[in-house]
Design brief:
- The protein is an alpha+beta fold.
- It has helices spanning about 5-10, 35-45, 50-55, 75-90, and strands spanning about 15-20, 25, 65, 75, 95-105, 110-120, 125-140, 140-150.
- It is about 25% helix and about 35% strand.
- A hairpin with a 2-residue loop joins β5 (about 95-105) and β6 (about 110-120).
């Protein structure tokens, strides 16, 4: 399957579950899964595509982004747009991978805790990254309402 058709398949996945993860949910408002919606935002962040990032956000529910670094916090349309505009102006994109995702979906709200990695712009090594996110069903789409990122510290020896 070509990358374009693979992306299209993910974006049009049935609304009865997250096919990639085999996770059922009961929303009848979405034509794509929250998992696919998150992947679309992650791909847009990696590509530094501000338009596609904003397309994946919920502006009906006051989006909030809390990054993993001190001072990385934005709430509301203007602040979140400015946050991602700054991210998109960097010489390279952030590349996230979340192989471990735990979804819970209730009606039009989905929340996620995911453990994975991030490769920061200009760096080669992947760092541990944890994402807590909330997506909401809006019409025929899932949109990101909360992104809260953390770089977990390694456990200290006792």
């Amino acid at each position: 399957m070509s990358p374009a058709s693979n992306r299209e398949a993910k974006l049009t996945a049935g609304h009865r579950g997250c096919p990639r993860r085999g996770i059922p949910y009961d929303s009848t408002v979405a034509e794509i899964s929250p998992d696919a919606a998150l992947d679309a935002v992650l791909q847009a962040v990696a590509a530094r595509d501000l338009g596609m990032i904003l397309e994946g956000l919920s502006f009906l529910h006051g989006p909030t982004v809390v990054g993993s670094e001190e001072g990385e916090s934005a709430h509301g349309r203007e602040a979140v747009e400015a946050f991602f505009a700054r991210i998109c102006s960097l010489p390279a994109g952030f590349r996230f991978a979340f192989p471990q995702r735990r979804w819970t979906v209730r009606g039009d709200v989905a929340w996620l805790v995911a453990d994975g990695t991030v490769i920061e712009p200009g760096k080669a090594a992947a760092l541990p990254y944890r994402l807590t996110a909330v997506l909401v069903g809006e019409g025929a789409a899932w949109r990101l309402s909360l992104w809260s990122g953390a770089e977990p510290l390694r456990a200290r020896p006792a």
